[in-house]
Amino acid sequence: MSDVLYEVDHRGVATVTLNRPHKHNAFDDELIKTLTGLFRQAGEDSQVRVLVLASNGKSFCAGADANWMKRMAGYSFEENVADAKALATMLHTLNTLTKPTVAKVQGAAFGGAVGLIACCDMAIGSKMSKFCLSEVKLGLIPATIAPYVIDAIGKRVARRYFTTAEVFSARRARRLGLLSEAVTEEELDSTVDDIIEHILKNSPDAVSAAKQLIFDIADHKDDDEELMEKTSLRIATIRVSEQGQEGLSAFLEKRRPNWIQE
Asked: Which of 30, 163, 190, 260 has its C-alpha lying 20 to 30 A from 136's C-alpha?
C-alpha cells in the first residue's frame, strides 16, 4: 500500500490522503517529496478545481516520523539545512497552490501536521481532534511551519503554544483560527462536501484570482492611491476575461454559468 493516496473525482476534486495509519501518518523525507510532487501535480492539472488533504486512521498526522528523526540526529549542518528546505518547499507549495485547499482533520495533529493544516485555505476538524506544537519538548523549534501557523493564529497566540507545547482541543483550535469548523465525527465528511459544493459553483479563474488577491494585498505597503489602482486593475481584468463575461451573462440571462456541472 502506498503511504499517500491520490485521486481526482469526476467533479475535479483532488484528494491527497496520508495513508500510514500504523505510524499515525507521521511523515519522513520520502513522504515529503511525494507530497510536494502531488501538490504540484494538482496545481498544474486544469481538471482539478479543489484539493482536499485527508488521512486514514485514528490520527490526522503525528508530525515527524521517529526513524526519520533518528537519521536527522546524525546529519551534518549542511544536510540538516537541505532536509529542512525540502519540508519548507512542501509547505510553500501547498500554501501557494492556485486551487482552493481544504484540510479534513480527525484525531491528533502534532508538530508539522499543524503546519500542513495552516497551509490549507480551510480546515474542518472533528471535535475529538487534538493539536500540539510539540517541537520544544524535543529541544527543537517549529521553524519551517512558523510563517503559516503564525499567519493562522496570530503572534500573541503563537508565543504561548510555541513555548508551552500544550495540547489544545478542536474547540480552541476553532477559536484561534486554525480550524474553520469543528464538527462531530459523523458530520466531518458532509461538512467538507458542503464546502466543496459551494466552491464548485464558482468560477475557477475567479476563485484562483481571489486567493491570489489575498496574498498580494494582505500585507501591502502601497499607499492608498497605489492600492486603489492595483485593485481596480484586478477587477477590470477579470470582468473582461472569458469566465468574467460568462458569469455576468449567466447572471443577466438567469441561467447557470458553464462551469457548473448539470
From this structure: 30
**pTM of the predicted structure, to 2 decimals:** 0.92
Contact between 92 and 116 (Cβ < 8 Å): no
d(CA 115, CA 232): 34
For residues 164 and 232, give the distance between their C-alpha atoms in angstroms, rounded to a whole number. 45
- Find the farthest-apart pair of alpha carbons in the chain and give their distance in angstroms, rounded: 66
SS3 248: helix
140 close to 93: Cβ distance less than 8 angstroms: no
CA distance 38 to 93: 10
Q: Find where cell 510539540 sits.
A: 134
